[in-house]
Design a protein that fits this description.
- By secondary structure, this protein is an alpha/beta fold.
- It has one domain: NAD(P)-binding Rossmann-like Domain (Rossmann fold, 3-Layer(aba) Sandwich).
- The chain contains 10 helices and 7 strands.
- A 7-stranded parallel β-sheet has the order 3-2-1-4-5-6-7, sandwiched between helices.
- Helix 3 packs parallel to helix 4.
- The radius of gyration is 17 Å and the shape is globular.
Length: about 280
């Protein structure tokens, strides 16, 4: 049976690079992207199905999840790769801080909506995290959206830490039912990422140091490694990996089971208050 792979952030950067690699393999590829033109172009190039969604609008996430679940009774891999670093704090139309919503709440909701086809396929969830979780993350569960202590770097670090906490939570809650999950750092990739953040990260990504960064093709190869890898062989469920494909240390909060549990519960509560769960 041809495996079904759902890949978000597939219109550009490492997502588009991974899509091109996967198009050479026997997979049923479903791309999700924010830009209609870019997503359509990558889909046409790779022969993939595609959906357009802006993760700053949870209605978009809900809409595509409903369609994907209707089209695919079984999903083998969901790669939560969409995200970004934004100035702010900015509040979305859903009432959440933008970095927190785009990088964490939206993939958290999408994964919940696709749990049935993922469990049907004994599937895997691959979360693109970042070394930024360790460098910039300063998690306060009383300020989970990083509103009162906002800086673009801190909000991004906390959102990437959220991806890792979510990975561990998925393993703990659904591992016994056959679902696997992994988080990884793709490298500091030379893409348009952080182009509007106005931060030191922007200067790193867009400035003279850009020539020293990992290419989109290399980052896409790392993403593809986890998408195509077999849990228990190429990677271990519930772990965080470096771009060298090794289990790596991350923010200390990720090793506290109480933080993992409470972060999940708070995320669910925020979405439930708005009627999404």
């Amino acid at each position: 049976m041809t495996p079904t792979v759902v890949l978000t952030g597939g219109s550009d950067g490492i997502g588009a690079a991974a899509a091109r690699i996967l198009s050479t393999r026997a997979v049923d590829l479903v791309l999700v992207g924010r830009s209609a033109d870019k997503t359509r172009a990558v889909a046409e190039e790779t022969g993939a199905d595609f959906h357009i969604a802006d993760f700053a609008r949870l209605a978009d996430v809900d809409r595509i999840a409903t369609q994907i679940a209707a089209d695919h009774g079984r999903i083998d891999v969901l790669a939560n790769n969409a995200g970004g670093l934004f100035p702010g704090p900015r509040i979305t139309e859903d009432g959440f801080e933008k970095t927190f919503q785009v990088d964490h709440l939206a993939p958290f909701l999408l994964t919940h909506r696709l749990l049935d086809p993922l469990l049907e396929g004994g599937g895997a969830v691959v979360n693109t995290a970042s070394i930024g979780a360790r460098i910039f993350g300063r998690l306060d569960l009383e300020d989970i959206q990083t509103l009162t202590t906002f800086s673009a770097n801190r909000a991004y670090g906390n959102a990437k830490l959220a991806n890792i906490l979510f990975t561990k939570g998925l393993h703990e809650r659904f591992g016994a039912q056959g679902l696997s999950s992994v988080a990884f750092h793709p490298g500091v990739v030379a893409t348009s990422f952080a182009s509007d953040s106005g931060t030191v990260m922007n200067r790193l990504y867009q400035g003279a140091a850009k020539r020293l960064l990992t290419s989109s093709q290399q980052g896409g190869g790392t993403l593809t490694h986890f998408i195509s890898g077999t849990p228990g062989r190429e990677w271990t469920s519930g772990e965080y990996y470096s771009d060298r494909l090794k289990v790596a240390r991350t923010n200390s909060a990720a090793y506290d089971p109480e933080v993992v549990r409470r972060h999940w519960e708070l995320s669910e509560e925020l979405l439930r208050r708005r009627g999404w769960l």
